Amino acid sequence: MTEFAFTASDLYSMLPITLILCLGIFVQSAAGFAAGVLIIPVLLWCGYTIPAAQSALLVATIPQNVWGVWSLRDQIKPRSIVWPGFGRVAVLPVGVWVLHSMESLPTQTIRQIVGGVVLFAAIATVYVKPTPRSHLHPVWAWLAFPISGFLQGVVGMGGPPMVFWVQAHDWDTKQTRGFLFAMYLVSLAPALAILYFAFGDRIVAPGLLAAASIPALWISSVFGLRFGTWLGKDRLRRLTLVLLMVLGVSGLASPWLR
């Protein structure tokens, strides 16, 4: 599989990558989820590796997460993110180690693994409906956040376990979004540092490309919010889930698709 090359001569050829990032951020803003589970498999289908896709995704989400934490800072309780954040970040190196070991696998096998994760996440989103309550037993946090960190490290898609955990609380929308923005933000720097330690300069170019795309990504985020309001998040959510299921099945069937 190829890696990003950030040179003037092939910048034009990278336009599809920027468009993919914009699409993921657009959907994330409109539907409230799916940036990672959409961007990672599509970039894989374009021939890029998971580390390259992860680097681009992490950098692309920095403005959105910073703005989300700032705008919802009154809803975020620092004590509530300390242990979940620790559990998520502590297991990140394990996921990245598994990812490093996976590089010897055939491309089709890697696509199948990612496709399986995407399909499982989409199906779980449809059928897992936690009952909101004021308090959860701590064991659920010690399951959800390490799993989130592991999935973030190995396939770049650690959001679903955190989302299910948050949905099990009787929080309002602002509390929910503030917590998730904070969790994503506290793990960004560690995730990039661990990826750099494992893969070196290979992740630098995709990160720079995503950084150069930030103005376009910001516009995508703004239009995504407006589009989600116009279409309705429930309908957009259903469309997004259908798209994710198609991506998941396509990944699983990749050895037979050309």
From TrEMBL:
Pfam families (alphabetical): TauE
Keywords, comma-separated and alphabetical: Cell membrane, Membrane, Transmembrane, Transmembrane helix, Transport
Annotated transmembrane regions: 12-35, 42-61, 81-100, 112-128, 140-166, 178-199, 205-227, 239-257
One GO cellular component term noted in the UniProt record for this chain: plasma membrane
Subcellular location: Cell membrane
Membrane topology: Multi-pass membrane protein
Domain of life, source organism: Bacteria
Family that this chain belongs to: Belongs to the 4-toluene sulfonate uptake permease (TSUP) (TC 2.A.102) family.
Name assigned to this protein: Probable membrane transporter protein
Natural source organism: Rubripirellula tenax
Phylogenetic placement of the source organism: Bacteria, Pseudomonadati, Planctomycetota, Planctomycetia, Pirellulales
